[in-house]
Design goal:
51% of the residues lie in helices and 12% in strands. The chain has helices spanning 10-17, 21-31, 85-100, 170-181, 191-194, 197-205, 213-309, 314-321, 325-329; strands spanning 43-45, 65-69, 74-80, 115-121, 133-139, 147-157. A hairpin with a 7-residue loop joins β5 and β6. The chain is rod-shaped and about 145 Å long. The termini are far apart.
Length: 331
């Protein structure tokens, strides 16, 4: 067995940041988008009855590192082992509740202080974005320097963190390395982590030897719940992927059938156009034949008339022109 426990677990995370004020102050100052003159100096943990409840499905997420600093700003820190679409809304709800809870009858709204929700997510949920750090707050859509103070939501995708690629803020890098590099498989701690007094203290807190048998029982139960939840999520994802695949296949078949129908319809329209063209040509030819017959008949009658004037008999003219005797006599 390794020397250390994973600091992302419920028990260890709370032991580090829920029981050591100076460590959670260090974490918050490193992770939050605070200006130099806004750094947190001291904090008090929230009473247990103020900590938001966890749902049955999300028992393995931590909502118990909650505190307030000397400026009355409030901070909620969570570790989410797996991403769900409802998590972001739940974070917003809890932060909003904390903001509203500041109000008292007759108080001036100008005294309301910001609420910061810092959320570590041990999962990737923005696959189309390379950044691991996501900060949400109320800003003007055109003039981004215009901000409404109130709610600040920070989501950190731990699997995306690469110390050589991101922030130059030393403590941010050290704390993220602590959360991503230390676990039960750690055999040798990086020198950079041991050289920092706060991170070194956190390392000492998560040493396996510091935990009782009862604590180890709950630690193992936590990972059992995480494993069960991830198995359920994987099964659900497989079902959703299968359903999506079947949907796409059905859609492709429908589009293919529609394309065939459109092609057949186009062929039918071409065939109809050709038939109409052929009919028109036939009618035109028939009209020309009738016109030619009429012209021939007229010429024949004229020829018969001339023969009649020459004194030929009706029988002789009929034999020469093909007209009937009756037709000749009517001329």
């Amino acid at each position: 067995m390794g020397k250390y426990l994973d600091p992302k677990a419920d028990l260890t995370f709370k032991k580090i940041f829920g029981e050591h004020k100076h460590l959670v102050i260090s974490l918050l100052n490193a992770m939050l988008p605070l200006k130099d003159d806004e750094c947190i100096e001291s904090i008090e943990y929230w009473p247990a009855d103020k900590i938001p409840d966890r749902t049955e499905v999300e028992k393995y997420s931590i909502v118990d590192v909650c505190c307030k600093d000397n400026k009355q700003r409030e901070f909620i820190v969570e570790m989410q082992m797996s991403w769900t679409e409802s998590f972001k809304k739940r974070v917003l709800l809890n932060a909003s509740k904390a903001y509203v809870a500041q109000t008292n009858k007759g108080m001036s709204y100008v005294n309301l202080q910001p609420v910061y929700a810092l959320n570590f997510v041990n999962d990737i949920f923005m696959r189309d974005i390379a950044d691991y750090y996501h900060y949400y707050h109320l800003v003007h859509d055109k003039y981004t320097d215009k901000v409404i103070e109130g709610l600040h939501l920070i989501f950190i995708e731990l699997p995306k963190f690469k110390p050589q690629s991101f922030s130059e803020r030393k403590m941010q890098v050290l704390w993220l390395r602590f959360l991503t590099e230390i676990d039960e498989n750690t055999r040798e701690v990086p020198t950079e982590l041991l050289e920092n007094a706060e991170v070194k203290e956190a390392l000492e807190i998560v040493e396996r030897a510091a935990f009782s048998d009862d604590e180890m029982f709950f630690y193992d139960k936590f990972w059992d719940r995480v494993s069960t939840q991830r198995t359920w999520e994987d099964d659900w994802k497989i079902k959703m992927d299968t359903a999506e695949k079947e949907k796409l296949e059905a859609q492709a078949k429908a589009e293919k059938a529609e394309a065939k129908a459109e092609k057949a319809e186009a062929k039918a329209e071409v065939a109809q156009a050709k038939a109409e063209e052929a009919q028109a040509k036939a009618e035109e030819a028939e009209a020309k034949v009738k016109e030619a017959e009429a012209q021939l008949k007229q010429k024949t009658i004229g020829f018969a008339h001339r023969l009649k004037n020459l004194g030929l008999s009706s029988e002789q003219i009929a034999a020469a022109t093909g007209l009937t005797v009756e037709q000749i006599e009517d001329i």
